[in-house]
Write a structure and sequence with these properties.
Helix 3 runs antiparallel to helix 5. The two termini are 34 Å apart. It contains 7 helices and 6 strands, in the order H-H-H-E-E-E-E-H-E-E-H-H-H. It is an alpha+beta fold and 239 residues long. Helices cover 40% and strands 14% of the residues. The strands form 2 sheets. It has a 3-stranded mixed beta sheet with strand order 1-5-6. The chain has a 3-stranded antiparallel beta sheet with strand order 2-4-3, with no helix packed on it.
Amino acid sequence: MMKKTEVLDKKADLAGPGIGSYEELEKVLPNDYRPLLDPKETQRAITAVKRFIEDGLCRELNLMRVEVPLIVDAESGVNDYLDRDGSRGPVTFRIANDHGLHPIDGQVVQAATKWKRVALQQFGMKPGEGLVTDMRAVRKDYFLDHDHSAYVDQWDWEKVITAEERSLDFLTKTVEGIWKVLKGAEDFALDAFPDLKKRQLPRLPEKLVFLHAEEILDRFPDLPRKARENAILQEHPAV
């Protein structure tokens, strides 16, 4: 019985939350941060780097860029809930539609996981083909910190693969392709915006190290999840 309890605790720990209070947040955020680029150059850099990464993902993973909706019909079933108990629900509102004769309950997208799979079929994607989209979403029930915002702007991609490709080797090669794009984006940003070199920050490693979450837990059994992630990065800067 004790062994079973330990396993359950391990699973809960692997999936546990990160920073959950502003008191904890204050301990990890620097209070002397100064940007290297002014606001105008920052926006130029963001635009250029995003374009570089998006083009790179399309090239490395054989993806096509598509637009994802910001609003979906609540009855469509393509919006995602961010948890199983429904405590983090989407922004919902009534669309009058034809002066109220045909109203629709609209939802602001929270995540595009389900929509992407529908889109793969709509666009007739074949094995080896996929899509990438710059998803914009609202997550009204998030805890807001340096990692999370109520407004989400992130890439989402999905690809059709065969049953034979559902392997660890294929997944590893895919992740390495993504890392190649991110490493290239770092080189591009430093060359295009030389002021970023003024602060001597560590460069991204050339190679990734692949570890299972269970391996990291076995390596640091007495540390909570976030602390384990920080500890393993001291040994392997890119995991």
